[in-house]
User: Fold Endonuclease/exonuclease/phosphatase family protein from Spirosoma foliorum.
Amino acid sequence: MEALFQHIDQLSRGVKAEGKQLIRRYREFPLAYTVIVYLFFSMAFSYYPMVDHWLTGFIMMSLPLAIPCGLAACIYLFFKQKQMIATAGLIWVLFSFLVMKRLVGSNGSELAMSQAQTLNVLSFNSETFPTSAQNGFNASSLKADIACFQEYSPNAQIENQYDDHVKKLSCFDQGREIGLALFSKYPIVNQYGRIWSRTLAPDINGFICADIAYGADTIRVVNVHLWSMGVRTNEAISALKAGNFSQFASGLVDTFTKLKEGFANRNEQFKEVETYVAGSRYPVIICGDFNETPMGYSYGKLSQNFRNAFEEAGQGLGFTLNRHPYCARIDQQFVSSDWHIKACQTLSDISFSDHFPVLAQYVLKKSLTVPAEVLAHRKSISHLVAKN
Assistant:
């Protein structure tokens, strides 16, 4: 027994010695080591968001800044002959590009799908529709097989283009309703949705989950609008340009508060949405306004089981925000492995809203092995069923 205690005491002393040595090494280059550790956590959280605390939202969002800082720290440590830590940091920098590829579309893969049935899906935070074509509004430009709108206000021109629809609206102000809408040229056989209530803010966020008869199959489409933050960076920028530093500082504090609030609430909202897609027996499409960049919690969680349409078949950066700070893609479309993603694009020529629409084309993988005439027959049957 005495020998055992002596062995434990030796181990304890060894651990303490190693700890002191690590602290001593850290004190040599504290800034460089801190930057590399921060890079590791920002990359890890973005790749696998195991923590849904609001603080991780800020850490994940800062990954594009953490990468060049981490690379600079690695170069500095190589110069200081700290090859082991510098090499480990460089490996983390390289791994982080696996996450950063979310920001750029890869144009997809070329497949011979001319005979396959293509499903066009539109997602659009439409804000307020113009009152006439003179203001740049053409309803036919927003026509697709399935269209999901956020911040939707009833519009006859849009609704007349579709055979079936689901709407979840709330009172925005006197005489005006706003919310979510899902339109489909195919029959909606089942649906569920809700608008989340907010204190001292409009009730415009929520989701719609619809099961749609698509030929001989049933697909599940989810239209989601996660917590809106109302961040307006242009106000802070204007104050800075005018030399009003107190107003600029106030704007930064307000932005931080809204971001923090948004991270916390979106995480909770996404968990509810996730229950309708996790383990679904139907092919799934999830689209909408996520109100966060690809370095966000919901994007990271969905990426574990679903594929992002723009990431796989988009072009360029695909920014969807039509206001300050502009350089953000916060409107997304995700699909399950049942789909082939044929194309995805941001329709930047439709600019009456503070968002741009996202249009994607999908092919159900099983249809690639089914003759075109069989698909046409199934389609005619589904139309007959819908009419009856």
Notes: Residues 245-274 form the longest helix (30 residues). Residues 262 and 277 are 22 Å apart (CA to CA). The first strand starts at residue 118 and ends at 125.
